[in-house]
Amino acid sequence: MSMTTKEIADKFPGTVRHFKEKTPIIYQGEVPRCGFYLKKGIVKVYNLHANGNEQIIRFYGPGDFFPLPWLYGKVATEFYYYEAIEECEVISVTKQDIETMIKPDLALN
Predict the structure, then answer these.
(1) 56-85: buried (b, 16+ CB within 10 Å) or exposed (e) per residue?
(2) Between the CA of residue 107 and those of 3, 9, 39, 48, what are the distances in Å?
(3) Between 14 and 45, residue with greater pLDDT
(4) Is 12 a residue whose pLDDT tops 90?
(5) Contact 16, 91 (CB under 8 A)
(6) Hey, which of 50, 64, 85, 104 would disulfide with 60, CB 3.0 to 4.6 Å?
(7) Is 34 helix (H, G, I), strand (E, B) or coil?
(8) What is the average pLDDT value for the chain, to the nearest integer?
(9) Contact at 8 Å (CB) between 14 and 97?
(10) Beta-carbon contacts of residue 27 (< 8 Å; ≥ 6 apart)
(11) Closest CA relative to residue 60, chosen from 19, 98, 94
C-alpha cells in the first residue's frame, strides 16, 4: 500500500522550524543544507531579473517538499528564491531522508 506525503513526512527525524511572513527561506545561488516538508503556510518561489522585476515561478503549500531539484540531486545550487508569504511551519529533510522514505515506497507500485 502506498504512503501519503503526510505519512512519509511524519516519519522524518528532521527539525521543525518556523518562518515568519515575508521571510526568505532559501536564496538564489545558495547551496541548501537541507530541504523542507511544508506543514503549514505558503512558500513563493521566484526569480529576480537584472532590471529588478520579480517573476513568480510557483507556490508550495502544505504537504509539499522543496526544493525538489536539489532534493532529487539534479542541481547543486538553487536557481530561485524561496520566501514564506505567510507564517510557515516546516520539517527539515535531507536527500538521504527522501531516498530512504520514498524509494522503497515507489518499489511497491
Answers:
(1) eeeebeeebbbbeebbeeeeeebebbbbbe
(2) 12, 18, 26, 39
(3) 45
(4) no
(5) yes
(6) 64
(7) coil
(8) 85
(9) yes
(10) 78, 81
(11) 19
